[in-house]
Fold Asp23/Gls24 family envelope stress response protein.
Amino acid sequence: MIGNITCENGIISYTEEVVANIVGVSTMECYGVVGMASRNATDGLWELIRSENLSKGVKVRSKENGLSIELFIMVEYGTKISVIANNIIQKIKYNIENYTGLKVLNITVNVQGVRV
């Protein structure tokens, strides 16, 4: 379990895959993102991940006071990468904190390629 929330009715536990899916869907909603890249590159070749496996491009680590998220993306040619990355960070932080109640400490966006 990556995170737990305790309330008056019991405990809610979140797995890494649930949080990674929220991150993947949130990322794909951002303008300029072509797709998620596989986080396990072999021979320096990155492959786009299909929409049903978006969690494969995301690493989620639980720390004592929140989550640390790292994601791997491919962006569209002609877009400003810094703007895309900032939009992704804001959207992920907002969605994770509102949907799950877990605190996000930091988000690292790794741009693995540019597609035309």
Observations:
- The first helix runs from residue 16 to 28.
- The chain is about 30% helix and 35% strand.
- The two ends are 39 Å apart (CA to CA).
